[in-house]
Every structure is written in C-alpha cells, then in structure tokens.
Amino acid sequence: MTALSRRSFLAGTARAAALAAAGATVTGCGAGGDGKVHLELFQFKSEAIELFDRICAEFNAANPDVVVRQNFQASSITSLRARLVKGDVPDLLTINGDYSYGALARTKIFYDFRPSGLLDGVNPAIASILDTLGTGGQGQTNGIAFADNGSGIIYNKDVFAQAGVEPPSTWAQLIEVCEELTAQGINPFYWATKDSWTSSPAFASLSGSFLTDGVAAWYQQRADLGSGTSFRELSPVFEKMRQAYGYGNDDKASLGYNDGNQGFAQGKGAMYWHGTYAIPAIRSYNEDINLGTFAVPADSAADTKVVSGVDVAFTMGKDPKHPEECRRFLEHVLAAENMRAYCQEQVAYPTLTSLSAQDPALVGLQPYFDQGRVATYSDHSFPPAITLNAYLQQFLFSGDVDQLVSTLDNRWDKVIRRVKESE
C-alpha cells in the first residue's frame, strides 16, 4: 500500500497540478547559465508540496551557489521508470518504501549511503526496513528513511473511557474488549472495506508480530519455490482477521475508506484498524476527536511489534553529477528541525533517534520505535501482479481461509516463477 493512495487530500491539489504541469521544465537540471548548480528534487507527496518548497527555499538562501527546485509527480513510480529507461535519473528523490522501491534498488540505480555518514542518527531498526525491500548489493543501504508511519489500531479515547476499557496488551484481551463493548451496544471496530486495499492493514499488522523470525525472511523463503513453504503457515493470521471482522458495524462492506474516516470521526465505533496515515483524514471530519493508538497485540505481549513503513525516504542516483551539492541538501533536509516540522505536519514518526513523535495520537506506538520492536509490511513483499488486496477483501467477505490460502499459493508461485525467469 502506498501512502499516496491512502492520504489524498483536497488541500494543495491546485498547487500539485501546477507543479506537475511545470515538471518538464525542472528535469535535466545541472549547471545553469547563472553559474549555479541546479538540482531537481523529484517529490511524490502531494500533501507536502508547500513544506518541501519551504525547505528548498531555505536551503537555496543558505547556499547561493545551488538552486534546488521541487518537481512534484503524482504518478511518481510510472514517471520515474519512464525516465530511467532514458538514463535520466533525478538528482534527488523522495520515494515510498514499498515493493517498487525494492525492485528499483535491485537494479543498482541508487546511491549506497552506508559509508556516507548520512545514516548516523537514523534509527537502525527503521533504516533496515529499506534494506529488507531490496538493495543494489550486499551491505548497501540505498535510501535514507525520513518519516515513518505505524500500523496499529486507532482508538477513541473518550469512548474507551466511557466504556471503562483499556488498550489491550494481548490478543485475548483485545477480544475481551470487543465483547465488553458489544455488550454495551458500542461497535468495537468501525469497518469500511468497500475499497479493497482497506483489507490489508489488519493482515500487515497481524503478520508482523506472528512472523517472529522476520517478515522479509519469511517471504524470501517463500520465494524459494522449492522450499515447501506455503501461505497455510499464516492461517493463524487469517483466523484472527476473520475473528476481528466479526466485531463491528453491519454495513462495513458498503463503506469506502472516506466513509470509514467520517464514521469513525463521528463516534460510530471505538476502534479503527488503520495505520497512523488515517489520522489527518479522521481529524478533517472532527478536529476535536480524542485519538490514541496501540499496537495490534500478539498472543504474548512480548511478541508484539509495530508494523512500520518508510513513508518517505530520500535517495539519489548511483553516480550523481553533483555529489557534494546533493549531500549538502540531504544534510539540510535531515536536520532535526526539518524532520520535526514534516512529521508534525504530516502526523508521522521521525526516524532520528533524537526525536520522538509529539502528536498525542502517536504516543502509544512510540515505545516500539524506541525499542526497535518494528516489522515491515507483508504486502510490500508482494509483486503488483499478485492482487493481494482483492484476495484479502474477498476473504473478509467469505471467511474462507482455505480458499484464500489456495489462491495466494497458486498466484504467488506463478508470478514469482515469471519474475525469476525474467531476471
């Protein structure tokens, strides 16, 4: 799942369109006629356009020999692939840490930041998430994690307080909370699963704790088609998804993501199974809602992890034309004040160990980041040709674990075999 698809806001749309239309004028930066080095910042977050404009302007003012201009691209991966075919690599890039990032990194087009010193201060547990997605070579780190999201459960603190329940620390306790809320006539969860991707957060967060030897390690083994590994091994995850889906509103299958945000903001449920990316959208319907977060609990509290994705990473080409100037900009953007400003505005987790989330709604997950108890998204290991979201959605509607396992095994084997043959 990409954050762009989850967090599309009306604010800034006109600005985004203007930048996209002007994008062609920004590409191909280099030494300008004014004697300055002109750099392009290829940027994909529509809701962060104004902030990155400010960051660029501040850098340009402090570095009179360099001009960095933002080039917003809504369809960033499509646009980037089209340019890479022509050998046109942007000077600087923001990119989402998902399957596409890993696939591109494996083509060896990105810079190796491991020896650069720019990773100093970045939470190692977060930095390693990018490495698990793919690298250009053993021991490399091809992106700098800038901002993270957390995939847990969002809850209405006021509803919890009125019902006399506390955030659970084990799966059994979560079910007890659901039973108590149901007995009081409160929807434990507010579900909205008309959009297929909304079925994925529960799968990601449950599998993150269940796969105790590592999410990426399990999928790497599953990619060995002779290993005998099967999605049957994830049946306990699917069973918990089915169990939780039984607690909540009856109209869940007819509601889209935005309907879910609005309904939860209106107090129609106590919990909302989405990552922290949903918080700005919820608040857009009710700015006074008292939100909290807790990690999706495992059977044992000691096994609980927060699934986290690198919402924004910075990278650049393997052989940058202006390495010194690019480095100066990265040092600028990674400064604590800039990361703090971005994370406060976007309701995200900073990746520097010296910083913590300040938003009250994020505090519940912060200890897991501090302790390195994080796991990557399962869905980031699926090639796009495997329509995971559609299969998970159908499973929630039918409750048929056997059918889901059979479908995933068959599709995974076919697609992975094709991927390997094309390498």
From TrEMBL:
It comes from Actinomyces weissii. Keywords: Signal, Transport. It is found in: Cell envelope. It holds the Pfam family SBP_bac_1. This is Extracellular solute-binding protein. Its main location: other. GO terms for cellular component: cell envelope. Transmembrane segments: none annotated.
